Fold this sequence. Notes:
Structural class: alpha/beta
Largest sheet: 8 strands, mixed
Low-confidence stretches: none
CATH superfamily: P-loop containing nucleotide triphosphate hydrolases
Strand content: 15-25%
Number of domains: 1
Radius of gyration: 21 Å
Number of strands: 12
Strand order of the largest sheet: 6-7-8-3-9-10-12-11
Bound molecules: iron/sulfur cluster
CATH topology: Rossmann fold
Amino acid sequence: xxxxxxxxxxxxxxxxxxxxxxxxxxxxxxxxxxxxxxxxxxxxxxxxxxxxxxxxxxxxxxxxxxxxxxxxxxxxxxxxxxxxxxxxxxxxxxxxxxxxxxxxxxxxxxxxxxxxxxxxxxxxxxxxxxxxxxxxxxxxxxxxxxxxxxxxxxxxxxxxxxxxxxxxxxxxxxxxxxxxxxxxxxxxxxxxxxxxxxxxxxxxxxxxxxxxxxxxxxxxxxxxxxxxxxxxxxxxxxxxxxxxxxxxxxxxxxxxxxxxxxxxxxxxxxxxxxxxxxxxxxxxxxxxxxxxxxxxxxxxxxxxxxxxxxxxxxxxxxxxxxxxxxx
Length: 327
Ligand code: SF4
């Protein structure tokens, strides 16, 4: 991407939840990154690693516990006035994981897609809103006649298209797509990814694309961040991450993707991680990945590695790539 401009800047973001008995769940713990205008940043990690919390905190669905978020140079502020909040909400939208539960079953497609317009474009008449919904349905590959139908009358892929139309209705600049293809058949996943890519190209959208594995995220992401127990462990351009993963966790995630070529699939080595993801309310000392890492060293038990740039645009948090190593 030439002439890159930052749209989202995140500095030392944390989101902690009080879970009772004096316990704090550190869902997101001191995370910093940026997303360029027109870029897709993929965010990958196992269930419960904090990736959805990052997305929801960016959209101010959750109030951050610490850190700063800037949107197009403006600091987001939970205490901002209603008018300012409305501008953020219009510019930052979300596509949800489950197209089955994220659409109100009692509302027609017309009502669902025009909901945001009612809030952010109260100046539009009913006819103007309807015309806008028709345009949006066409944009996402659905026929206008579907506007009066209800969500249960659609397949999973069609429902996700409705969810995309709903997100686009208020003409946002930034979209958090929270595992938008996870609940869909494999054959439909590529269609939705292609639709998101096409819309991005046409409208200059910026995405945070959240996924629980690295299989499909490659096709849409310019860069990918890998998350583990509330922190980023690796961040690189997609091509680099797939060609030369550095963090042992990224290596393991990549080794679990099935390869299309049966010969390669038979010959390659799978890295099977032992144990479960640690509880973010009581993460291990030192490196949070040490309880499952096949490359653990003594230092990993007591010293937490920090995310650092080990080669241009390639960041990793692992003692194997500390300053004293060859990197
Ligand atoms: Fe493994 Fe140590 Fe690197 Fe953590 S710091 S990923 S335990 S080698």
